[in-house]
């Protein structure tokens, strides 16, 4: 399997970043979305380590099965998941999992959602319908999420038009990003943690809402550069 990083993202530092022995609290975020939307690129951009990815070269065997419409020029595809890491403190580590985009691998998603604090749904406005399944499954699992519009060029639609097309409720954040840019990717994660924090603060009677463990993460993400 090809463990090389995706094209277009920032180069990773040459040395490895070892996991501290004191790290005993792992937090999990999942990045989902349609085929070729930029999930591998986003995970690779923000990860402090060279990301593990399970990309395979696309061949003629996938013709008629995978739909490359809107992702012309894409030569490889994730067949399991992408994995990245951000060290938040001596004891806390954030793990990022990028889900495969092709429909034939969607059966893996439910397991990836297990134990996740929240998720980022990455969308391409040329193929918004590819995001419907991701949103449906997250709502089914009760997993908090935000939606990030990945822009590789000038957007053809406003964010409000995208919200209407996806039928997103007003409480679900919708933001812009460039999956190739590390700072932009970090802002997406910050927005997700803010959303989780707001859910916790809105929960009544002292019962922790999903994502309560992420509240201390916000300040660390805002002050650090992955």
How does this model look, in words?
The chain has 226 residues and is of the alpha/beta class. It is 26% helix and 22% strand. The chain is built from 6 helices and 7 strands, in the order E-H-E-E-E-H-E-H-E-H-E-H-H. The protein has a 7-stranded mixed beta sheet with strand order 2-3-4-1-5-6-7, with helices on both faces.
Strand percentage lies at 15-25%
From the N-terminal CA to the C-terminal CA, the straight-line distance is 26 Å
Strand order of the largest sheet: 2-3-4-1-5-6-7
How does the helix and strand content classify structurally? alpha/beta
N-to-C SSE string, H for helix and E for strand:
EHEEEHEHEHEHH
- Helix coverage percent of residues? 25-40%
Quick one: biggest sheet?
A: 7 strands, mixed
Which helices and strands, and how do they pair?
Elements: E1 25-33, H1 39-46, E2 52-57, E3 76-87, E4 92-98, H2 109-113, E5 118-123, H3 132-141, E6 145-150, H4 159-166, E7 174-177, H5 182-202, H6 217-223
Parallel strand pairs: 1-4, 1-5, 5-6, 6-7
Antiparallel strand pairs: 2-3, 3-4
Quick overview of this protein structure:
The chain has helices at residues 39-46, 109-113, 132-141, 159-166, 182-202, 217-223, and strands spanning 25-33, 52-57, 76-87, 92-98, 118-123, 145-150, 174-177. It has 226 residues and is an alpha/beta fold.
Features:
alpha/beta, 7 strands, seven-stranded mixed β-sheet, globular, 6 helices, disordered N terminus, 226 residues
């Amino acid at each position: 399997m090809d463990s090389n990083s995706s094209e277009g993202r920032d180069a990773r530092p040459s040395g490895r970043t070892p996991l501290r022995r004191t790290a005993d609290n792992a937090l999990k975020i999942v990045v989902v979305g349609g085929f070729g939307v930029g999930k591998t690129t986003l995970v690779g951009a923000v990860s402090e380590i060279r990301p593990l990815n399970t990309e395979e070269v696309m061949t003629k065997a996938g013709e008629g099965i995978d739909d490359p419409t809107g992702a012309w020029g894409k030569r490889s595809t994730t067949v399991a998941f992408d994995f990245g890491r951000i060290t938040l403190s001596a004891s806390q580590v954030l793990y990022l999992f990028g889900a495969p985009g092709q429909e034939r691998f969607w059966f893996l998603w439910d397991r990836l959602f297990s134990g996740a604090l929240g998720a980022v749904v990455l969308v391409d406005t040329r193929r918004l319908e590819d995001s419907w399944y991701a949103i449906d499954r997250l709502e089914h699992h009760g997993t908090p999420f935000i939606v990030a519009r990945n822009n590789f060029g000038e957007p053809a639609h406003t964010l409000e038009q995208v919200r209407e097309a996806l039928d997103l409720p007003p409480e679900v954040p919708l933001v812009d990003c460039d999956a190739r840019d590390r700072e932009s990717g970090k802002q997406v994660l910050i927005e997700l943690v803010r959303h989780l924090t707001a859910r916790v603060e809105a929960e009544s009677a002292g019962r922790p809402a999903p994502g309560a463990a992420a509240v201390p993460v916000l300040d660390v993400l805002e002050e650090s550069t992955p």
